Amino acid sequence: MTLPSSVVISEEGPREGFQIEPGPIAAADKIALIDALGRTGLKYIQAVSFVNPKRVPGMADAEEVVGGMTLTPGVEYSSIWFNEIGLLRAWALRDRLTIAGKIRAYPSDAFLKKNLNRSHEEHLEYTRYEIGRYKNMGIPVSEASVTAAFGCNFAGEIPVERVLSEIGALKALIVEHDLPINVVSLADTMAWATPNTIKRVVGAVQDRFPEFDVSLHLHDTRGMAIANAFAGLQMGVVYFDAAVGGLGGCPFAAHRGAAGNISTEDLVFMCHEMGIETGIDLDALIECALLAERIVGHPLPGQVMRGGTLAKFREGARSR
């Protein structure tokens, strides 16, 4: 088994978490967490989403949050959107946010309809339009993802061949429009993955599309996220999304109160204990997780923030 020597972790807690929390959460608290995360060594922080405030009231203050953030040099702050209105809101803040286009594939037609109210054909047509819009605005299209790549609550198991077919369609768009994309994200949106399916799907993608690196976006609804991350590391994956404290989750995924995304501090702890570099100060990250827990006002599923690092335990044992 050859593990990578280092990994790249993108922090999505402020966006994933605060858009799903019942709230209300003050913009000042959101800003405080984002600023603290910027001081941990993280290089990528997804701060907000520009979405319909009636459907996602937790992101109604996105402009205020972005305007109030203290930008740490060397850190990329990003956002997401799903339509032209959201794009234009993000574009207006391009002096403070990294604006990059993303193309998405949905191997589950049922989830695509539920999430974006589009058919497969409508989504492909919209993606083509979206690419043209990005190019006209001078926005690089640098990300590609497959949503619900491991299973779907509305469609059940997702066949590996369907995932490969969707990546093939993404590749055709990448080639057709000469897009600078070399990483494809596989999202376990509704937490169906297990270590075996991580290895099977990632392996199949690596075999069929060796020109792409794989990124993993993992959820912890069924307690499998850290095990799935380890399986990804065993397959040579070096790109991971995570959320401080285990914030977040998918609103379609499970009952309220289910665990959210993979906890950033748990992932960093595991990597450090295995000698895998992250560039992140774990103690500072744990403080961020505790801050996030205080902000949302309820326990978060991250484990390391309560258990502490082994280094601290070792120091304590030596002092005794």
TrEMBL record:
CDD domains: DRE_TIM_HMGL. The keyword Metal-binding applies. Residues 7-286 form the Pyruvate carboxyltransferase domain. Pfam families: HMGL-like. Keywords: Lyase, Metal-binding. InterPro entries: Aldolase_TIM (IPR013785), HMGL (IPR043594), PYR_CT (IPR000891). SUPFAM superfamilies: Aldolase. GO terms for molecular function: lyase activity. Belongs to the HMG-CoA lyase family. This is Hydroxymethylglutaryl-CoA lyase. It comes from Shinella yambaruensis.
